[in-house]
Amino acid sequence: MEVFDYEDIQLIPNKCIIKSRSDADTSIKFGPKTFKIPVVPANMETVINDDLAIWLAENGYFYIMHRFQPEKREGFIEMMHAKGLFASISVGIKDDEYKFIDELVAHNHKPEYITIDVAHGHSDFVIKMIHYIKEKLPDSFLIAGNLGTPEAVREIENAGADATKIGIGPGKACITKLKTGFGTGGWQLAALRLCSKAARKPMIADGGIRFNGDIAKSVRFGASMVMIGSLLAGHEESPGSVISIDGKKYKQYWGSASEKQKGAYRNVEGRQMLVPYRGKISDTLFEMQQDLQSSISYAGGKELKDIRTVDYVIVKNSILNGD
Ligand SMILES: NC(=O)C1=CN([C@@H]2O[C@H](COP(=O)(O)OP(=O)(O)OC[C@H]3O[C@@H](n4cnc5c(N)ncnc54)[C@H](OP(=O)(O)O)[C@@H]3O)[C@@H](O)[C@H]2O)C=CC1
Ligand SMILES: Nc1nc2c(ncn2[C@@H]2O[C@H](COP(=O)(O)O)[C@@H](O)[C@H]2O)c(=O)[nH]1
């Protein structure tokens, strides 16, 4: 088995066939809608909130609202629909979540996208929730995760999920690999490649994105969408206020399984940290789009799918060589 991560891979260019990078099409159809770029901010409390979800949906970007204020989720769906926008929410797998799904059905608040968001998605309890949601809300596009093996992808797809989310432990705020010894941390890109051999439905690569070029690498190894936490948590529009230390600006970022998120030191697999303040999120997303357009041109193509077939080399820890 080839084992590598984002920093170990370089994609090999093909002859360019477009006159300008602006001719490259970065759009992606994911579920019922098409988005400008294959990027989704992580469904974490320090990355997404109502205002940002509205802005993203209005501006052609995908989003997934987090599940950490469960009582607000139905109102959120109603509010997004009242604005003519799509609703995309997260659920867990505990007993109360079944009641929540029943309430959505009873009140006809049907989100366009639902994500089952648990640490270890290859589980009979996730499969039970997939069956329940597919029975009660068959028109919602159902994403399930997180997974890290081809067996898991096969089983979760067969259970009825419309897409899977791949990545156990590669996140910046993650301590799963340290606390449990398990995961795809350190070989996330190779794990994505393995999962793509089994996948018959779209995959979201989740965690470990440190540079914009990692988005193109994720697409090369099978991702339809790339979930990003730390790199998108430091913006003006990100939840929380700006913190200044020694003249430098930061924002808070914490793991969804951190003590801070859970309010108790129980099954903690995440930590909290500061990430550098990065200004407006629109500028970062636009730069990601421009860099992806450039990636498509280096791939010798015109659209995102053309990145999928490029050759690559494994050059261990190559990313900062030459800088
Ligand atoms: N992508 C990643 O690598 C990781 C992401 N996270 C994120 O942290 C948040 C909290 O996750 P999670 O703890 O799953 O949420 P929950 O607290 O909702 O736990 C999910 C359910 O599964 C049960 N469970 C059994 N085994 C496991 C296991 N190994 N890991 C997790 N749950 C298990 C839990 O019971 P009980 O609590 O009693 O065990 C609980 O009932 C989520 O947003 C998740 O995405 C967390 C860790 C890793
Ligand atoms: N192991 C843990 N993983 C976590 C936790 N909270 C979130 N996450 C995962 O990280 C990604 C974001 O990764 P990044 O590298 O872009 O910062 C996120 O989407 C989750 O899958 C956690 O507490 N523990």
From TrEMBL:
Gene3D superfamilies: Aldolase class I
Keyword NADP on entry: yes
Reaction catalyzed: IMP + NH4(+) + NADP(+) = GMP + NADPH + 2 H(+)
Domain called IMP dehydrogenase/GMP reductase: residue spans: 5-309
InterPro entries assigned: Aldolase_TIM, GMP_reductase, GuaC_type_2, IMP_DH/GMP_Rdtase_CS, IMP_DH_GMPRt
Keyword entries, A-Z: NADP, Oxidoreductase
EC number: 1.7.1.7
One record GO biological process: purine nucleotide metabolic process
Residue positions of the active site: C174
Sites where the protein binds NADP(+): 203-226
Pfam families: IMPDH (PF00478)
GO terms for cellular component: cytosol; GMP reductase complex
Example of a GO MF term: GMP reductase activity
PANTHER family: GMP REDUCTASE
Annotated function: Catalyzes the irreversible NADPH-dependent deamination of GMP to IMP. It functions in the conversion of nucleobase, nucleoside and nucleotide derivatives of G to A nucleotides, and in maintaining the intracellular balance of A and G nucleotides.
Similarity section: Belongs to the IMPDH/GMPR family. GuaC type 2 subfamily.
Record protein name field: GMP reductase
Organism expressing this protein natively: Lentilactobacillus farraginis DSM 18382 = JCM 14108
